[in-house]
Amino acid sequence: MSDHQLRPRTPTPPAPTPTAPAPGPRASGPRPLGPRVAAAFRSAAPALGVYAAVRALGLLVFWVAASVAGKDPLGPLSGRWDSVWYQRIAENGYGYTVTLPNGSVHPDLAFFPLLPALERGVSAVTPLTLGGAGLLVAWTAGLLAAWGIYAVGARLRGRRTGVVLAALWGVYPTAFVQSMAYTETLFTALAAWALCAVLTGRWIAAGALCVLAGLTRPTAAALIAALAITAATTLHREHREHREQRGEPGAGRAGPVLRRRARMLAGVALAPLGWLAYVVFVAVREGSPFAYFEVQAQWGNNIDGGVALATFIAGLPWPAALGLCAVLGLLGWLVVLCVRQRQPLPVLVYAVAIVVISLIGAGYFGSRPRLMMPAFPLLLPPAAALAGLRSTGRTAAVLTALACASAAYGAWTLLGAGPP
C-alpha cells in the first residue's frame, strides 16, 4: 500500500459559486445625494403629475372665466391683495404704510421677508417682472410642497396614499391661492420637508428648514412647536428607558445616542432663529421690543383666544351659523381621525397647531380657510380612505369631481372683490 493511500485526505473546499462571490468590504458613508434625489423624484412623479394636473385645471377654468368677463387673468394672480405688498417690499424694501379711512394703520412690516427676497432675486436674473417672479416662485414651491406632502404621506401610509394626499391638497377649497404670488406654497413646502426630515431623524436639516419657514410666515410657530415637543418627548422617553435598562449588557454604549441627541438639540435650537430674527429686526427698526406684535395688532392679526370667531358666528343668520358650526365640527372630527390614525407626534402637533393659530386670531374671517391650508396632515385620513378604494377609477372620479369644484370656486373667488 502506498504512502499517499495511508495519509488522510484533506477535504477540498467547494468552488465558489460564480453568481454569489464572497462579499468584499462594504462601502462606507451614505449614498451620493444625486442618485437619492433622482430615486425620490421618480417615486414622487405620479403625485407631482396629479398635482400639476389639478392646478392646471384650476388655472384653465379661471382663465376662461376671466376672458369671458373681459378681465386680465394675470391681474388677480400677481397684482392684487397681499401680492402687491410683497412686490412693493421686493422693489423698495420695508417702510410703506397705508392709513385707512377709519384711521387704522397698516405697515408693510406685517409681511415676512423671504418671498420678497426670492422675487427680487429671480427678477434680477431673469426677464420676469416682480409679479412674474412671484408666480414662478409660488408655482415652483407648489410642486416642491406636493413632493414633500407625498413624501410624508407615502412614509406613513404608503405610496398610493401619498399620491392621493398631494392631490387632495391641490383641490383644497382655497387651493386657488396656490396659483397666486402668496406665501402658502412656499411655507407648506418648507414645513412638509421639515416634517419629513424629523421623521427620518435629520434634525439639523429640519431646523434649517424651520429657519426659512420662520422668515416666510408667522405660523412657523406651529412647526417650531412640533420640533420642540417631539424632541422633549423623545428625550423623556429615552431617559426613562435608560433608567429601566441600567446595568443590562450594551447599556453603556452611549456614543451614537449622544451624537443623535446632540443633533436633535441643535435642530431644535436652530428652528426658531428665522422667526426670532424677523421679530428682532422689527423691534430694532421701530424702537420697541414688542413692535412686531403691535404691527400684527394694527392689521387685526392679534391673538384673541377665539373671541372674534365666536362674535362672527353669533352675528350670522341662524342657517349660516349652523352651517359654519357644522364645518367647524367636521374640522374637529378630522383632528380626531388624525389622532386615531396614530400620526407621528411632529405631524400631529404641527397640524393641530396650525388649526388653533388660525382659529384664535382676530383677523379677517374669510382668510381663515387659507391660513389652515398648510395643515395638510388633516387630509391624511380622507386620503387613506380614498386610496383604499378597490377601484382606481372611483378614486380618480372623486378627485376629478373635487378638482372641478375647486376650480369653479377659485374662479368665482378670484374674480370677486374680497381678499382670499
Task: Tell me the layout of helices and strands.
Layout: H1 3-6, H2 33-68, H3 74-78, H4 82-92, E1 97-99, E2 105-107, H5 114-125, H6 130-157, H7 159-170, H8 184-199, H9 203-214, H10 220-245, H11 255-270, H12 273-286, H13 291-298, H14 307-314, H15 318-340, H16 345-359, H17 368-372, H18 380-387, H19 392-414
Antiparallel strand pairs: 1-2
Helix pairs in contact: 2-6, 2-7, 2-19, 4-5, 5-6, 6-7, 6-8, 7-18, 7-19, 8-9, 9-10, 9-11, 9-12, 10-11, 10-16
Structural account:
The protein has 420 residues and is an all-alpha fold. Helices cover 67% and strands 1% of the residues. It is built from 19 helices and two strands. It has helices at residues 3-6, 33-68, 74-78, 82-92, 114-125, 130-157, 159-170, 184-199, 203-214, 220-245, 255-270, 273-286, 291-298, 307-314, 318-340, 345-359, 368-372, 380-387, 392-414; strands spanning 97-99, 105-107. A two-stranded antiparallel sheet has the order 1-2. Helix 7 (159-170) packs parallel to helix 19, helix 9 runs parallel beside helix 11 and helix 10 runs antiparallel to helix 16 (345-359). The chain starts with a helix and ends in a 6-residue tail after the last helix. The model is unreliable at 1-28 (pLDDT under 50).
